[in-house]
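User: two proteins, same treatment. go.

Assistant:
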Amino acid sequence: MDGSRASDARPRSAVSTGVGLAGLAGFALFYLAVRIAHLEAPWVPLAGLAACALPMIAWSLAVDRVHRNPSTGIDWDGPPRGWADALDTGLVKLAGLWTTWGLIACVYAVGRWYWFNGYLYAMHVMAAALVPLVLLSIPYVLWLERRLVDREDGAWAFGHWLLAGGRTVDPALSPKIANHLRSWAIKGFFSAFMFSALPGNWANAIDIDPTTIVGNVIPLSEGLIALMFLIDVSMGTVGYILTLRPLDAHIRTGNPYAQAWMAALICYPPFILMNPGGPLDYAPGQLGWSRALADHPVVQPAFGILLVLLTGAYAWATVAFGLRFSNLTHRGILTHGPYRFTKHPAYVAKNIFWWFAALPMLTTTGLTSDALRNCCILAIINGVYVWRARTEEKHLSADPAYVEYAAWIARHGMLATAWRAVGLRRRERVVASAE
C-alpha cells in the first residue's frame, strides 16, 4: 500500500464488526429455536433481547476488551478507593439516579398513551424490572465509585443539587446536570417505545409460514422484511438498555439542540405526524407495490428483492452499533459496516424503501391530485429525515473524531465515489471526442 492511501485510511470505529455479528448470531439461534419449538409467550421478546445482548457483552469484554478503553473513565490499574470513600459519593449519586428514575416513572404514570396497546407491555416490563434495578444499582454504583477517574458525573451533580435543597451550587455542575437529565429523558422515552414495539414485531416475524413463501414473492418479501424489522428493534432495544461504562457504551452527551429533539420526536408516538390520519400521512388511496405491480411478473419480484435489500441495509445499520444504538446521543463514532459508505445509512435506506414500497404516485382513485398530494407529503417526510441528520451532525461535530470521519466520507463515501466516476466518464468522453 502506498503512503498516500495509508495516510487516508478510514478512521477507526468505536465499535468492532464482531460485536454486532455476535449479537446477530445469538438472535438467529434463538429465533430458530422459537420457530422449531412453536413458542408463544410474553417472555419470548425479552429472551430474544438476552440472546442478542449476552454474546455482544461477551465479545466486547473478552475480544475487544472495551472495559480497558480510556473512554470508559475507569482506572483498572491503580489501587481502588476504600469502600467508605466510595460510599460518600456513591450515596449522593444514588440519590440523583433514583430521583431521575422516579421522574421518569411519573411521566409514565401521567402519560395516558403509556397504558394502551403496545405501550402497556412496556409498562409491565418496566414495573417488573424496577425493584431489581434499584437493588442492583447499589452494588454497581459503589463498585464503580472505587475506580472512576471522575466521580463527579451528572448523577452525582444532580444528587448534590437535590441534597443541597435545590439551591444554586457550583455553576460548573449545571452542564453536567443538564446532560444527565437529557440523557435519561432520551433513555426513558425511547426505551418505552422500543419495548412497546417488540411484541408486534415478534408476531409479524413468527407468523411467516414457510409453505406459503415458496415461489410466491409477496409473502416471501413481506416475511423477510418483518424479520429485518425484528432484528432492528431487538438490537436497538439492547442498545437503550445497556448504557454501561464498563462496556464503554455509556452516553457521552445527549443532543442539546431543541430542533434535534423536535425533528426526532415527530417521528415517534405520541408526537408522530406520519400515523394514519396525521398531517404527514401519505397512505390514503395508496396502491402499494404488490397490487400496483400484480400484472408485471418480472418487475414485481425485482421490487420485492429491492425492498428486502433496503430493509436489510436498515437493519445492518442498527447491528453495526452493537451495544450502542440510541437516538439523540453520542456514544462513540461508528465508521464501519454501512457507515463506511454514508453517514446516515439507516435514513437513506428507510426513505428509499418508503418510495418503492408505497409508489405514492399510483393511487386507487386514479386522481392526479391524490398522487401529487401523496408524493409531496412523502417528500416532506424525507425532508424531516434530512433535518434529523443535520441536527445529529451538529451535535456529533463537537467530537474531533466525528469531524475526521465526516471529512473522510466527503472524500470516500458513496456520493463522492459516484461523482468521481461521473467525472471520469466525462473526461474520457472529452478525450475521445478530441481524438
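Protein 2:
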Amino acid sequence: MTQDYRRFLLPEEISRIARLEVRARHIVEGFLSGLHRSPYFGQSVEFVQHREYVPGDDFRRIDWKVWSRTDKHYIKQYEEDTNLKTTLLIDVSESMMFGSGAMTKYEYGCTVAAALAYLLLRQQDSVGLVSFDDGIRKRVAPRSRQNHLHAILAALAAEQPQKKTDIYDVLRQTAEEQSLKGMVVIISDLFASRDGIFRGLKLLRHRGHDVLIFHILDDEELDFSYSGTTKFEGMEDSGDLVCDPRSLRAGYLEAMSKYLDEVRRYCARTVIDYQTIRTSEHLDAALAHYLNHRIGMRQSIRN
C-alpha cells in the first residue's frame, strides 16, 4: 500500500506541481496588486436579499440607499455565481514542446492555465480543465472550491505532449457536451487545420459560449531569426529539413503574418476574444485582457 502510494507521489512530480502553483500565485497576486480591484471580485453578481448588519461584516457591502431611507444598516447578500462555468482547453500536442527560451510553449501554456484557474477560483467561479491533442486526453470536472486548484495543477504536470492536433473534434465534443452556456478558454499554438479551427469555434459560438483564445507562440516562430545552415526537426510527423533559413525568412514571415491576420479577422467577426502571446512575454497583459472581459460580461449579466 505504501509503495503504491509513493508511486503516485514521485518527488519530481510534486516539485513540478509546486513550481506551477507558486508561479501562478506570483503572477496573479502581483498582477492584482497593481490594479484597482474589480468591484465584482470576491462576490457574485446575482443579488438575493438584504440582511441587517452585524459587527464584522464588510462595510463595503452596506446598502447606503437603504440606510438613507430607514436609518438602519443593511448589507447586500449575493448568490454564489457558479452557474457560469469556465472550461480551460489546453493543447498538449507535440508541437507545444517547442521552445527557444526559458519555457516551452506547453510550459508557458500551463502557466497561463494555472494563473487563470487561480484567478477564477479566487472569484468563486467554477473552472474545469480539458487537455487535448488529436482527441481529449484528460478531463478535470469543473468545481468552485479553492482546493480544486491542486487537481488542475496535477493534471497539467502529468501531461507529456506527443501527438498531432485535431482541434475540430475536441471543440465539437466540448460544444456538444456542455448544454449550459459558459466560457471556453483555448490555450494552444493553433498548429492545426485552419478550416477545423474555424468550424470548431463556430460550433462553440452557436451554442452561446463565450470563447477566449490565448494563442501561444515562441519568439522564433514569430521572428524566424535563424542564420547559417540549420536542421529543423519536424514535430507531429512533419519531417526534418536542412537549409539556409535566411532564404526562407521572407516567405515564412509573410505566410505567418497572413495566417495570424486570418485568425484575428475570423475571431473579430464571430465575437471571440483572441490574443497572440509570445513565450517571452509576462502574463500581465493577457490577464488584463481576460479580467476586462470578465468585468464586462458580469456587468452585462447584471443588467
